[in-house]
Batch of 4 targets.
Target 1
Amino acid sequence: MKNRCLIPKVCSAVGLLLSGAVFAQASSPIAAPLAAADCKPNYPMEAVRANAQGVTVLVFHVNEQGKPTGGEVLRKSGPSRAHGMLDRAALEALMHCPFKQRLDANGLPQAYDIEVPYTWRID
C-alpha cells in the first residue's frame, strides 16, 4: 500500500522522490514545501480498509517566514467518512511543512496563500 502526493513544483524545485509518496509537478511556480519528507501524511488504516482514494485540495496561508499559519480543505477527496479521514490527515501533516518565502518586487518577504493538491492512492 502506497500513497502518492502531488505538491506544487517539488520535483522540479527540489527533485524529491520518496518511497510511498511521489511529489510531482503542478501549476504554481511561487512556492513549494521544502521538507517534503516531514510532510507526508500517514494513510489512515480505516481509510485503507474502506479502500478510500481521491484527491484532497488544500489551501494554506503562509506567513513571511514561510510557515503555514492556517489551512483548510478546498475540495474533499470523497464523500465518505473514510475520505474525511484522508482530508484531515493531509491538512494536519502539511500544516507542519515549511514553504519557501515569497518575495515582493522589492525583495521583501510577504505572506501568501497557496493551493496544494494531495492525491491518495492505494496500490
Target 2
Amino acid sequence: MPRRRELRAHREELQRVQVGLVGLAGVLLVVTLANIVIQTARTESASDIAAGTLDSLNGGGQLANASGGNEPLADLGVTPTTEQVGAEPAPALPSVPDLEPDPRLSKPMDRDPQNRQQDGQ
C-alpha cells in the first residue's frame, strides 16, 4: 500500500510539472506572436513613410494647400478654416443660470445625520 501512495504522489507531481510547462510554453508563444506583430507594424510604417505613402493619402499635398497650408487642425476638421471664420456666426446657445441653494433649507444636507450626532453637532 505505501508503494501505491508513493507512485500516485509521483504521478501527481509529474502532472503538475507538465501543466506548468505547457502554461509556460503558451505564454512564450503569445509573447512571441505579439512581438512579431509589433515588428511587422513598425517595419511597414517605416517603409510607408520612406515611400511617401502618407503624401499620397493626403492627395499629394492638395488638401494642405486648399486650406492655406498653415492650419493643421483645420485640415483635420477640428477648427474652422480661415474662410469659415468670416462667415456668418453660429446662433448663440441659451445659457443656463447659476444654480442657487434652496433658501428654505436651514441645515446642510450633504452629511449623514448619524455622523453629525457623533461629531457633536
Target 3
Amino acid sequence: MDGKSATQFILLAGILLLKAWAKETVRIVEGQGVREGRVEVYYSGAWGVVCGAGWDMIDAAVVCRLLGYGGASTYQSNITFKPENGTMWLTEVRCIGNETSLWQCEHAGWGENTCVGSQAAGVTCFEQGNNNTYLQRFSFQCRR
C-alpha cells in the first residue's frame, strides 16, 4: 500500500468511526416506535434531553440522519418529561442542515439550561428511500 492509499484508508476509517460514535451518542426514546420519540444525547457519562424551545424540522432532520434514517417527517418541540428522568444537556439548538453531528449545531453550551419548563425535543424519522425528507422539499434556510 503506497502512502496515498494508506492516508485515504486512515481517513475513511476515521470517518466510519466518527459516524459510529455519533450514532451511539444520540438516541430517540419513549416513542410509539423505534423511529420516533424524545431526543437524548450522551455527554459526560450520562444521557440527557435536548430542549424543545426553538427546535425545528432542520434540527430533527440532522438527528434522524445521524441515526441512519432518511430524514425527519415531523418534529415535536414540547414533549413533557419529568426532570428526574434526565439532565437537560442541550438548549437553543440551531442546525443549518448540513451537520454530520448534533455537536456541530449552534447551541447554548453543554449543560447550560436556558429551557423554560420541562419541554423536550422530539422527532419522527423515516427510513432511507422515502422521498418525503424536509431537506429535499425545501432549500436550506438562512439563519440569523
Target 4
Amino acid sequence: MRAGTMVPLWLRRSAVALLVRIARGGVTRYGLPRPRYRLLCGPLAVSDSLVTGLRRGEIVVKPAIDRFERDRVRFRDGSTEQVDVVIYCTGYKISFPFLRESLIAARGGEIPLYHRVVPPALPGLYFIGLVQPIGAMMPVAEIQSQWVADLLEGRAVPPPEPEMNREISAYRAATARRYARSGGYAIHVDFLPYLGDPQGARGRRQARQGPPGAGRRSGSWFKQTGFAQRDGAGFPAHYDG
C-alpha cells in the first residue's frame, strides 16, 4: 500500500483505465457520453448494475432535457418521451443550519478545513466525512475519527493556525488544478494518498503535525483489509478511455 501512495497520477490513471476496459469494455457504445475530463480528475459513476441495465435495455441514455411539454419531455436532440415521474439528481448542498453562518459556512461548496477535518480558527470543532473520496468513504471516516480521538485525548496537537491555513491553501490550489474541468472539486480527496501517508500524523503525533493519513494503527488496518473496494464495490462504469 505504501507504493500506491507514491505512484504518479498519470500511471494510476493508466492502470485504472486498463482495468476498466478489461472489466467493462468501452461504455460509450451503450450511449453514455464521453466525459469532458480525464479519469481520476472528476466524479466516477461506480456501479455494477449500470452497464447491465444498459445491455438489457432497462436503462436508456438520453441527452439533456430541453423543456417539459405537458406529460412529455423534449430533449436537446429533438426527441420526446412520455413520462410519469421526473427525478432531479442534483447532488448535495453543504450547509450547517445548526451553526451560525458568521461562525463557519460553506461558500462555493467549500469549507476551509485543515486536512479536511479541523477549522483552524475553531479549536474543538471537527468534521468527519466531509470529503468526496475517489474510493470508499468509511475507511476515510475511520481514519479521520482516529485522528480526532488523538486530538481530543491530547496525543496529537494541530500545528499553529498560520501553518494550517497554508495547508488549506495548498490543497485548494492542487484540487483546482486537477479537477478544474469537472467542476465541484472543493471536497475531493484521493483515497490512497489521503489514507496511506506513512509519515502521517498518527505515526508522528509527537511532532505536532496533524494530517489524518495512515500512521501505525491505520497502516496495520490496511494490511488486514487491503484496498477497501476490492470486495464488491465494482469498477467505474464511466471513464474517458
